[in-house]
Amino acid sequence: KNQVEQSPQSLIILEGKNCTLQCNYTVSPFSNLRWYKQDTGRGPVSLTIMTFSENTKSNGRYTATLDADTKQSSLHITASQLSDSASYICVVAAGNTGKLIFGQGTTLQVKP
Amino acid sequence: EAGVAQSPRYKIIEKRQSVAFWCNPISGHATLYWYQQILGQGPKLLIQFQNNGVVDDSQLPKDRFSAERLKGVDSTLKIQPAKLEDSAVYLCASSLDGRAGGYEQYFGPGTRLTVT
Fold first, then answer.
1. Which of A86, A91, B9, B86 is most exposed by smallest CB count within 10 Å?
2. What confidence score (pLDDT) does residue A95 get?
3. Which chain B residues are Cβ-neighbours of A30 within 8 angstroms?
4. In this complex, which of A4, A97, A103 lies closest to B101 when CB atoms are compared?
5. How many alpha carbons lie under 13 Å from residue A15 in its C-beta half-sphere?
6. How confident is the model over B22-56, as pLDDT tens digits?
7. What DSSP state is assigned to residue B105?
8. Which of A27, A54, A97 to mutate to test the interface with B (most CBs of B within 10 A)?
9. Which residues of chain B neighbour A100 with C-beta distances below 8 Å?
10. CA distance A36 to A19
11. How far apart are CA A105 and CA A29, in angstroms?
12. C-alpha torsion sign, points A8, A37, A41, B55
């Protein structure tokens, strides 16, 4: 069964600190892995997309890694800001159908 | 470039009533998606359109949900009759061509439905 699991479910950190969110997937065949940020009351916005051959991709203070062998990904946030408070969703695109398999998300709260 | 537009943003109805949501995708995007997102969960695909044809509606509760994209542009999602468990955010998304896995999906702001 195609599944995407994220951990932790929620996280609270102080402003300026770093954090890492985890994603494990069992999706086959694999096309790409995406991380989305979803602010409260808004739709998800893409942060990164990684294909099988990419193992790191950055977008400003966000850095995603992908280990296709272990089927794990992480999203590292550096020097967190209050505006980073949001839900972060790991999504895997299956094969060549374009179907997206969504994780349940990690809710991040950054406190001053 | 204008994003995906959705309306209304919020809707409160009583159970057994009907409701309709509207979505206008990004211009030129052939693929349109409707997702249901229950609080604390990731989005669940309800239906995927390629132009005005249905590609995937395997998770659409067809006894109460219906969707159409008549001219291959705008789309409406209807629930009739609504149940309490339909309370969720309904997200619309679009992409250039959803048949391939590499294209980005752009999401609208969603419609928050509360069924009382």
1. B9
2. 77
3. none
4. A97
5. 5
6. 999 999 999 999 999 999 899 999 999 999 899 99
7. P
8. A97
9. 45, 105
10. 16
11. 22
12. negative
